[in-house]
User: Which sequence fits this backbone?
């Protein structure tokens, strides 16, 4: 009888492994939006609880909470998009007017380059360098890059919309059935009630800590960029500080999406000193604040080592892209909690 039970158990484990593998293949394309929905559900669940206390119908409460989350993200993005488009149009018209006076963009840039060459020629011999030819080739490459980037942006935007639809659709059901789903998962796990609570608490604390880290980095980089714009006398420092805070959510590019174009525009306009100051401030202070603030905030909130969180963030971004900023620390917290429970279980059995 024991042999038959063991054989049945192994056969069921084999079938479960195959079934889980096929389930993973089915759900793999949607892992990012599902994780995003889980993260939003955990962060906004206290607000949903209050809404649910006033609205007794689960569908209506879940729908209202989902719409509220959408408004939290969409409304500021639309407002900023409108303001940015106006500011960009005004700036483009100003540069276009200046370049038209000198016969177009290429002569305008060349004129700015000539002034730099004349100034640098006082200290360095530049007679053997073809700076004008290099600048023209660079302008052509930039034009081609911007065209390809525009096409890529359209494709990424469509993919982003599809991801958002899946994420918010999942978020609705997590709000509506979050409590029962948690109970079902707890029943399926071979753990005690306290162990399940520790597991969920560890993951929840890590996600909330990541959100705090994102907000802290966005606030810091936005304030530092606004300060730099204000000191250099640039237009709308508060607005571009808010834009920087929004772009701080994007890995790799991040805040540089604001201060790098601003420095290029300053250089093209002939303000080379201010352009270099802005580049130094952005690369040395604004960009580096992410590497200091985010690991510190997450480590304090999630009770993890700052160095370990730093590598979890870097590894998460490399493995999962932008969501790796959240997946990395969550996976780390989950692993540490599981290892701690495993240690307690082994030591408990050894002591007994």
Assistant:
């Amino acid at each position: 009888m024991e042999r038959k039970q063991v054989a049945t158990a192994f056969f069921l484990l084999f079938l479960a492994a195959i079934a889980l593998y096929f389930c993973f293949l089915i759900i793999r394309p949607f892992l990012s939006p599902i994780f995003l929905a889980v993260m939003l559900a955990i962060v906004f669940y206290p607000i949903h609880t209050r809404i649910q206390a006033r609205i007794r119908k689960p569908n209506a409460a879940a729908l209202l909470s989902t719409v509220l989350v959408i408004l939290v993200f969409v409304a500021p993005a639309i407002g900023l998009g409108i303001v940015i488009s106006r500011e960009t149009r005004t700036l483009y018209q100003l540069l276009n007017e200046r370049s038209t006076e000198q016969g177009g963009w290429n002569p305008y840039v060349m004129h700015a380059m000539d002034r730099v060459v004349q100034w640098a020629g006082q200290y360095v011999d530049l007679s053997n360098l073809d700076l004008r030819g290099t600048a023209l080739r660079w302008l052509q490459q930039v034009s081609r890059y911007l065209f390809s980037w525009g096409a890529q942006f359209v494709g990424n935007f469509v993919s982003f919309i599809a991801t958002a639809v899946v994420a918010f659709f999942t978020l609705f059901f997590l709000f509506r059935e979050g409590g029962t789903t948690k109970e079902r998962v707890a029943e399926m796990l071979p753990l005690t009630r306290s162990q399940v609570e520790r597991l969920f608490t560890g993951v929840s604390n890590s996600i909330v800590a990541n959100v705090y880290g994102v907000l802290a980095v966005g606030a810091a980089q936005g304030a530092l960029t606004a300060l730099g714009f204000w000191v250099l006398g640039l237009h709308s420092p508060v607005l571009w500080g808010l834009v920087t805070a929004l772009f701080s959510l994007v890995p790799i590019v991040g805040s540089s999406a604001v201060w790098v174009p601003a420095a290029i525009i300053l250089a093209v306009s002939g303000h080379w000193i201010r352009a270099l100051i802005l580049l130094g401030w952005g690369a040395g202070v604004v960009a580096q604040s992410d590497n200091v603030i985010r690991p510190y905030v997450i480590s304090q909130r999630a009770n993890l080592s700052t160095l370990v969180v730093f590598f979890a963030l870097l590894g998460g971004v490399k493995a999962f892209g932008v969501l790796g900023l959240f997946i990395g620390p969550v996976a780390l917290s989950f692993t540490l909690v599981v290892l701690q429970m495993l240690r307690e279980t082994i030591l408990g059995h050894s002591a007994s």
Notes: The radius of gyration is 27 Å. Residues 87 and 227 are 18 Å apart (CA to CA). Residues 189-352 form one domain. The mean pLDDT is 76.
